[in-house]
């Protein structure tokens, strides 16, 4: 059984990129949970840090603990409902940057592989014909030192989708201590996955909002 060692970064405590009466947008660092788990030691997370300053902050979507990048939070029930509906109905646009093992044979493509829970190794996920539809568009941005920097645009939002899809292609994301082998784990100090941009409709004004944060690797 894998032991989860949680030591969330404290600098910066919060990287707030935008705030108004309805939403808050942050740049979440790698190593910080999006929301608390059951264990008391997981209480320190992006959500609780925001709630210490803005008590009505509401979680509407998640990034994996080791994934960094742009997240949006709601500040009232109307905003929560609007944003959650947009995520559920695939009305948002998300772009991730990942550094992966090896050189992809095709410069771009679509990964259409259903994903299901790996019941023998929870909470891992796996490619399965009986799973839920999962689609990811990818494009190679750069290749060097035997590895590739890729842009990933998920159409669906399955748990661990990008990590499982890249693994299925034979190009695990560097630093992935959950799905990668020892070579992959040692290749980077953190999971090389970053939510670089997020586009959604503002829940009150109806304006298209887009926020970005350049990948740190």
Automatic annotation (TrEMBL):
Span of domain Pseudouridine synthase RsuA/RluA-like: 22-167
EC number: 5.4.99.-
Keywords: Isomerase, rRNA processing, tRNA processing
Annotated catalysed reactions: a uridine in RNA = a pseudouridine in RNA; uridine(746) in 23S rRNA = pseudouridine(746) in 23S rRNA; uridine(32) in tRNA = pseudouridine(32) in tRNA
Pfam families reported in the protein's UniProt record: PseudoU_synth_2
Family: Belongs to the pseudouridine synthase RluA family.
Its biological purpose: Responsible for synthesis of pseudouridine from uracil.
PANTHER family attached to this UniProt entry: DUAL-SPECIFICITY RNA PSEUDOURIDINE SYNTHASE RLUA, MITOCHONDRIAL RNA PSEUDOURIDINE SYNTHASE
Protein name: Pseudouridine synthase
Organism (species): Shewanella sairae
UniProt lineage: Bacteria, Pseudomonadati, Pseudomonadota, Gammaproteobacteria, Alteromonadales
